[in-house]
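Thread: "does anyone have the structure for this chain?"

Original post by V.I.:
We have the sequence but no experimental structure in hand. Need at least a predicted one for the grant figures.
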Amino acid sequence: MKIEKALYEKREISLNDYREEMKGNLHCPCCGVPITYVAKYIRQSGNEEIEVSPYFRLSKNPHLSSCKYLVKNRLNEIYKNLKEQEGECDFIEKQEENCFKFHLRIVTDETFPKKGKSSITYENNKTVDEFQKKRQNAFLKTVKDIISLKDSIETDDEKDLKRMFQLNFYNRRTKINECISWDKFFYSDDIESYWKLYLYIEKNKATHPLCIVGQIKKIVHKEKYIQINLKAHKKSDNELIAITFTTKNEEVIIKLKENQKIAVYAQGFRVHTNESKTDRYEIFYNNINAWINVPGQIFVL
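Reply from O.Q.:
Generated one for you, tokens below.
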């Protein structure tokens, strides 16, 4: 797992504090095992080069079993905090030690509370709608915590996350509980993932929610809605894959700005193609679109 801080001579340092003379004398700030510094590097993705920011990681020995930088401990911490703050939540189940089932939910834009239901109370005198809104917020916070964890782990840890955290979705059309693989839910910010996403939506017309990571290129204000355009990936010299999220809710973009790295949880994805021609060039666009209902669907990473 990527670590943002380290212990050097019993003093906590950040990535910006690292100096070459510290090499060989860095330790995990939680359990104290030796860790090492990984400098910024370039990763190749198709015909694109992606810059990977620096981080600390394990050197050789594993973390101690109680360390917070183990996937199992992070998952248990997320679950524990959720239970303490929200009580019972129907969207997550602890099946056995270190194993969880997470039920993906459709995110609505309903206004709370609605007239006509204010007399119906749930727990602690909350109205039904207030409870639903609170539960939706708790659900989206949990998604954010899990995606932040996914973003912080290395390839070696991914198998643990996929094994320990199972994704499930109730398909109202087929009335079947479907097990959703991580590969069909989460899409990284690279050409291979974006193209895989495009083909998956085109072929399957996915009804379950998806999570996309990307970098904001531009936020465009139209007359009746707002568009959040992610930076496109180049499939070839004249072919791009472009993702756009649309919303009518001004609150969605309050904390967003260009060049931010974000993750977006959404449903109802659609794809289409179009061309842009001039006398000098022709560009073919593979477009992916989805609607955003509430601010909690977008997480800044």
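V.I.: this helps a lot. The helical segments are 71-86, 128-152, 155-164, 191-204.
O.Q.: and DSSP finds four helices and 20 strands in the chain.
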